[in-house]
Amino acid sequence: MSILKKINAKLDGMAPGDREIGQYIVDNPDQMLRLSTAALAAEIGRSQSSVVKFSQKLGYASYQELKLAVSEAKAQDWQVPAGVIHGSIEVGDTYPVILKKLIGSKLLSMQQTVAANSERIISRTLELLDGARRIHLVGVGASSLVARDFSYKLMKLGRNVLHDSDSHIQMANAATLGPGDVLFALSYSGASIETLRIAELAAKRGTTVIAVTGLHDNPLSRVADIRLYTIADEERARSSSITARDAQLTLTDLLFILLLQKQPDANDYVHNSEAAVSVLKAERSS
């Protein structure tokens, strides 16, 4: 049962103050995700401590954990479009069924990932990337491919970006970071030892650590200053790394587009990059 359904089911048995908080969350989950404990308390005319205690009564250690649960519940509300199947791809599946399952898994993963990250946390991430002296992107395996793709996009905007697929070089680069720099670490499991050690080193050097990881509690999320969450059907989809990668790409593409909008001279940088590449293409075809 999702937390929203759980709260709704318990409303009648709640004390008046808790019922008021619960009813607001059930009726306005999107608004709740954008509010701090103080803001939510002010919105409904209750104390900040009552909001925290309400979260704890539901079994969460903090209001932030309750917000994460509400984010997951909102993500689950989205339905795969009619005609598209979501589920594990089996050995005996026909070609059309495989297509439908693959598309369904990808769509669901991307939609749930977007729902799991509030506009506030995306905006904060954008501020940090925009103001960073240097941006160091790290990841291993499929996450490294996403990191490389994002690094290319950021370079097109003239950003000072560090990325290398070799984890030893990633670690060496992290040793040069400091305050004013940003480490952008991607790991769905949050337990990739190379990525974790690099994040720990960056954090010790005063670097802001942004983690792109799963919703579950994990070592990388505990090191990070900012957490962006990706949702992939790891339990059901045999191609789990595909859906995790799609979820990561959804976030990095979103951040790139928002940076593109924010940066006044972004179009000039992108145009210059395309013009430079077009010269090589012309020489190759001649």
Describe this structure in words.
This is MurR/RpiR family transcriptional regulator. Helix content is 62%, strand content 8%. The protein is built from 14 helices and 5 strands. The chain has a 5-stranded parallel sheet with strand order 2-1-3-4-5, with helices on both faces. β3 (182-186), α11 and β4 (208-214) form a beta-alpha-beta unit.
Summarize the structure.
This protein has 286 residues and is α/β, with parallel strands linked by helices.
Mean pLDDT, rounded to whole units? 88
Strands, count: 5
Which runs of at least 5 residues are low in confidence (pLDDT < 50)?
235-239
Strand content: 5-15%
Largest sheet entry: 5 strands, parallel
Gyration radius, to the nearest Å?
21 Å
- Total helices: the number is 14
**What order do the helices and strands follow?**
HHHHHHHHEHEHEHEHEHH
Secondary structural class: alpha/beta
Shape: globular
InterPro entries: Homeodomain-like_sf, HTH_RpiR, RpiR-like, RpiR-like_SIS, SIS_dom, SIS_dom_sf, WH-like_DNA-bd_sf
Pfam families: HTH_6, SIS
Protein name: MurR/RpiR family transcriptional regulator
Keywords: DNA-binding, Transcription, Transcription regulation
